[in-house]
Amino acid sequence: MIDDKLNLAEIEGGITAPGSFLAAGINAGVKSGSIKKDIAVIYSPNETTTAGVFTLNKVAAAPVQWSRARVAQGKARAIVVNSGNANACTGEEGLANAEKMAVWTADALGIAKEEVLVCSTGVIGVQLPMDIMEKGIATACTIISPQGGHDAAEAIMTTDTYAKEVAIEMFIDGKRIVIGGMAKGSGMIHPNMATMLGFITTNVKIAPVLLQEALFNAADQSFNMITVDGDTSTNDTLLALADGSSGLAIVEEGHNYDEFRKALNYVCTRLAKMLAADGEGASHFLEVQVINASSKNYAKLAAKSVAASSLVKAAFFGQDANWGRIICAVGYSGADFDPQLVDIDLQSKAGSEPVMRSGAGLTFDEERAATILAEKEVKVLIDLHNGHYDATAWGCDLTYDYVKINGDYRT
Amino acid sequence: MIDDKLNLAEIEGGITAPGSFLAAGINAGVKSGSIKKDIAVIYSPNETTTAGVFTLNKVAAAPVQWSRARVAQGKARAIVVNSGNANACTGEEGLANAEKMAVWTADALGIAKEEVLVCSTGVIGVQLPMDIMEKGIATACTIISPQGGHDAAEAIMTTDTYAKEVAIEMFIDGKRIVIGGMAKGSGMIHPNMATMLGFITTNVKIAPVLLQEALFNAADQSFNMITVDGDTSTNDTLLALADGSSGLAIVEEGHNYDEFRKALNYVCTRLAKMLAADGEGASHFLEVQVINASSKNYAKLAAKSVAASSLVKAAFFGQDANWGRIICAVGYSGADFDPQLVDIDLQSKAGSEPVMRSGAGLTFDEERAATILAEKEVKVLIDLHNGHYDATAWGCDLTYDYVKINGDYRT
Predict the structure, then answer these.
(1) Reported pTM
(2) CATH fold of B7-277, please?
């Protein structure tokens, strides 16, 4: 797939796509009896610029506390991740264990423990099986390779049904720029998502403050549009490492930085949409676009409110054109708008059906609406006719399987 | 049941318990083919003081717009309610229809249309069947009686599985004070509840500003603790009529007003808990008590966040002692607290099990926890050890049936 406007092309390889990064994903047995891969290591032989976005939850897991302090220094060389155990609410022992993960990774790779970022995802409140972690980390560090991206993407999964990875290449000043990324599932997406982990690698050289700003902005219009600000888990983390191996250096704002930002947004949005589509038990992928709002914030609030509404989500599961729940969710979103001006359309590749005009419901063709909603990917278009700001949020429907998965996750 | 501390006793009769109010509930056929009662009328032969609390949703249904304006005048004599159709997003025609409901009720009862409050609940965006409404309202007004409270409570139900009513009597200055109430279901309770309607009748005489204040405060610690402020439907309405027939007049703050407020809080809390227990598809009733918070607002935020968490709700459906999701929901609630100080206990009539102490998970007896969670009514006790403010929220679990009910409600 080529995006002409962005002048970039998707390529294979996930987080090892830049070529200069090594990775591995192995089964260590973090979750007793499971044969699923559960430890991932990403390593940069080169020095990097590092940026991160972390959970706003007051209860931050031990690895978040460790990694937040390391990112503040801005010079990581490796990331170690385990699934199967979140190392959250684990007290002093948990903090010590997060540090041990960094130490073992650093020792195996011959770097300093301060250069290792740590992420965990899984059950809360249980201490990590440290003998298994030690062996697993050592093994993973032994087999890291430029082809290990996909294994790493598999190793970070929890209830995800498939690995999420994407990579792009583009040319700036004649240099081949690559951005690779992988992410793991957001569980129910909203209102209180399971852990979201995201990892970005790139071969640009970039000033730390610029990378941090670009990553923060990319997260804001991608991962944050499948959840609600503040409603984050104890472990949510998005990390980016830039190693400069492309030869391109972005040291100030301007054209090159803009191109990089657009590409980073693209990668993060692709990953975020994959997370939404793979929401626990989801049978439909929902895109909610709000246009012509009177501010960017109102557009975002309205779009997220609709995508997050359990009643809307349940209606899409039932393939029910229940636009009343949609306008209701816009109404309590906190966005300012005039209810008398609102238009709503339901869309999919099967067609487009207007269901509300100027704030009043239309008598529409139920059969045509049902055909549209039977598609796997469905879009809600909401025109507030109140300004010129747009925003898009993504989500999934609410299904029996969601309840099943979350009714018995821990045991 | 007698509450000694409050010095009140529950009695029969719902909203007609004061004796001076008349009511009826009939099947008019608002929802084609349904034999369920769907029109309710409450009438006060005496003049009343009137108060109301309405949805904060930007999209307010036509009956809400009508009733809000009437309550501002403070002198209603009747309330007409229909279920089966919300008369929301119905434009000018909907506003005219809400007024017609008031006119027909006023004509039948011989009062002014401005003395009639109107409420609707049901599907959004469909015009009311006005021929059916006209006949139904006329019939209901003909058969209103002092015994009609229960029929009225049945007529306002939508997906509720039973009618919610409560009434109390108490003595103040030798006068027998009665407060009656009825309410209808909040659907999923949160995050975007279906319409909540509540109605209160009482035989005290009370200054309008005091009744409004008392009702607002009662709603804040009852109905608002089973939902989240702002996340209200297009139709949510709580109305109170006080007719003064007891001979007791409350004209200023002081002992008598305090006693009345406590009793009103009791009635509203009883109704709110019934709504939570009857959440769509619910198999467990959840009470979340947060104690020792550093402010009342933080206590409320934390309690509501836990009660509203879909992950917590799904865990209780699975009878899974997943306290990690509980502390996570406290963490993103917006409440300020120290994670290192938090204690959590799971309780029911089968016992009490500490699952977190000082912010770290305990190794607890899974079997005993399972026994506790198997009970229909389960309580989460969260001690923040951070101040001296408490709050309680109520909710229910998230079940397969919730998804089923909401996946196909409109059709």
Answers:
(1) 0.84
(2) L-amino peptidase D-ALA esterase/amidase (3.60.70)
